[in-house]
Specification:
Elements: H1 2-10, E1 15-20, E2 26-30, H2 35-42, H3 68-88, H4 105-114, H5 117-123, H6 128-145, H7 158-180
Antiparallel strand pairs: 1-2
Helix pairs in contact: 2-7, 3-6, 3-7, 4-6, 4-7, 6-7
Length: 189
């Protein structure tokens, strides 16, 4: 059955390759990995649950890396700060960013987690907290290892713009997930 599904998927525009693992799992490679960023940003914002519908899965304190709630909240705030810094440094962001440039290993790590979002939205998956933790971890690593803003005398580039745009998608998803968990997204930390 996996082979038949793989054969059908290979004919879908935007799919670069489909590999079938021995256990029947499919590994799907998309032609333009960064397109998920535009899909996330173009989707309507999910309707938040009624107030008091759930409790925060993590405490606000301590504000250290040992607290996954801090890492998630900080990633949300950090993505907003990166956008502000990028604007100050002349990085042109917006819909004109080229998602095909998001091809590095750290960018792809963030994109892989973002790609899980549509199924989480549809199923109202109870694993939001773990998903947000994984997304925050991937984003923090990407910001540290694959700079979204120019460093030193480096001129702003299209890659910087694509990474800032990816950060916007991360911020939106983290904000949506926090609201889903009954946590107000922070303005600052």
């Amino acid at each position: 059955m996996a082979e038949r599904l793989a054969a059908r998927l290979r004919a879908v525009p935007g799919i670069r390759r489909v590999d079938v693992r021995p256990n029947g799992f499919l590994v799907i490679g998309v032609a333009t990995p960064g397109e998920i960023v535009e899909d996330v940003l173009a989707a309507p914002v999910a309707v938040p649950p009624p107030p008091g519908a759930s409790a925060a899965p993590w405490p606000d304190f301590p504000r250290t890396w040992d607290n996954p709630g801090f890492a998630v909240r900080y990633a949300y705030v950090r993505a907003g700060a990166v956008r502000r810094w990028a604007c100050d440094l002349g990085v042109r962001t917006g819909a004109a960013a080229r998602p095909e440039l998001l091809d590095g290993p750290f960018d792809r790590a963030v994109l892989r987690v973002l790609a899980e979002l549509p199924s989480r939205r549809e199923s109202r998956d109870p694993g939001w907290a773990a998903y947000l933790e994984r997304l925050a971890e991937a984003y923090h690593t990407a910001v540290e290892r694959a700079a979204p803003i120019p460093r030193g005398d480096e001129p702003p580039s299209e890659l910087h713009a694509a990474r800032v745009r990816m950060g916007e998608a991360v911020r939106r998803v983290l904000g949506e997930g926090l609201v889903e968990l009954g946590v107000a997204p922070p303005g600052k930390i």
